[in-house]
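User: My collaborator sent over this chain with a note saying "see what the structure looks like." That's all I know about it. Can you take a look?
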Amino acid sequence: MTESEILAELKQVIDAEVGVNIVDLGLVYKVEFIPDGVRVLMTMTTQSCPMGDLMTRQAEEAIRAKFPNLKDVKIELTWEPAWSPSMMSPSAKKQMGTA
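Assistant: Without extra context I'll predict from the sequence alone. Here is the result:
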């Protein structure tokens, strides 16, 4: 299991408000391997994002579906640094018409 494999699974999680996956949107800040599992540090586009609980649950489910033997999958939210559109990948910017 690698960081790239975790990120590939997280690309299945789509922010329903904008239709872009959470990796390309720039919401995933860090993937860290911990004893018996993985920790993902991520954010939302705003602190008042109504999809936060759903997206963190979907992120955990995506990882567990691919790696069912992981004992510990932690999805942690942070607000530092605050998300900005500059964090989006070039493909996300193009998809949203901001490239």
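A starting point for your reply to your collaborator: The beta strands are 14-15, 20-21, 28-34, 37-42, 72-77.
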